[in-house]
Design goal:
The chain is mainly beta and 178 residues long. The chain contains no helices and 13 strands.
């Protein structure tokens, strides 16, 4: 008869004893196969080294939500769709919004709409990010592109601001400038 194996007993992590950290008072190293030297480790006196002193900062973060640091990446946050709170980054240049097909898109909304109600075109709209700021253009979509409930017509480049709500099909996304 084969031996029956049982699952190992589980112990809650809170009951596992913690090992004591090893912090030696002296560090020894071997300088040659026959000699061993000991070096005493002493704490650093921070008063002797001004560069190690904590520095008080008078710099406070900007309260202006429109100012965007150069390193920040604008994002579209899904506020209505199949997957809420998904963020899509907006990069410098053209950012195409739609559903992936032969032509790739930067913001793929295929999984944001239900399969029985697809309103988003394959290349629906484009967001342009350049030194002038952000703007959006409808690319001749069947169901239109809306910013703050106002329709954007094909060929019309509309500037975007922090907090604008973009609707493409049944998906709504809020523009976040961090």
């Amino acid at each position: 008869m084969p031996e029956v194996m049982t699952a190992p007993e589980t112990v809650p992590i809170s009951e596992v004893p913690m090992a004591e950290p090893f912090l030696p008072d002296t560090v020894s190293y071997e300088s040659s196969p026959k000699e061993t030297a000991a070096v005493e480790v002493k704490p650093v006196d921070t008063a002797s080294y001004p560069s190690l002193q904590p520095v008080a900062s008078d710099v406070k973060p900007s309260a202006d939500p429109i100012s965007v640091p150069n390193m920040a990446t604008p994002k579209l946050l899904v506020i209505r769709g199949q997957r809420l709170n998904v963020e899509y980054p907006i990069y410098t240049g053209d950012n195409f919004i739609g559903r992936t097909d032969e032509k790739p898109v930067d913001v793929d909304l295929e999984d944001q709409e239900s399969l029985d109600r697809i309103w988003c075109s394959r290349q629906h709209a484009r967001i342009v990010s350049d030194d002038k700021g952000l703007s959006i253009e409808d690319l001749g979509s069947q169901n239109g592109t809306f910013v703050n409930r106002a329709r954007i017509y094909p060929g019309q480049l509309r500037p975007l601001e922090n907090g604008d709500v973009i609707q493409i099909g049944t998906v709504q996304m809020k523009l976040k400038l961090q």
